[in-house]
Amino acid sequence: MSIQPAPEGKAQTPSRLAVPVSARDHAMGPPDARLTLVVYGDLQCPHCAEAHPRVVEIADELSDSLLVVFRHFPLNDVHPRAQRAAEAAEAAASQGRFWQMVGLLYANQEQLDDESLIRYAKKAGVDSRRFRKELESGVHAARVRADYLAGVRSGVQGTPTFFINGVCHSGTLDFEGLVAALLSASRPAG
Tell me: domain 33-186, CATH 3.40.50.1390, correct? Predict the structure, then answer.
């Protein structure tokens, strides 16, 4: 996603992260890292699936200096299985397997029916009975909704949307562009 240009004569101010990163977020990397990359993603979005391996690669590259956070932003009008996939990721998260499940969901976006979600959960190392029960009960819908509403408050309009140290990244989404923006954010001002 790219931010739309400001109307003629008006400067566009970058949007800021409205809900700070907290212990409730799904994060990889050191909590005290000098850089934080918050990703708002839709698990059925092909652009998010394309960006996900880059984010993992960047996390590996910048390891000790980067905290990566994922928040759900299902675009249900465009991706009818995104909400269910997000709830499946949360069901896996309740068993400590969030990132494994997210990787499987992005790799298998063409099949996000319930039976496929259960199959991916097994591959992610999740107790499938518990997973199925949580998925069927809708217990994780409120968590997904909370992430979505936090995104709306932060000005997210599409996916993927990245925030670097709390400021929306409006540059390119390729590996080099994201790394350059992260490194630029890590330099002291002045």
Answer: no
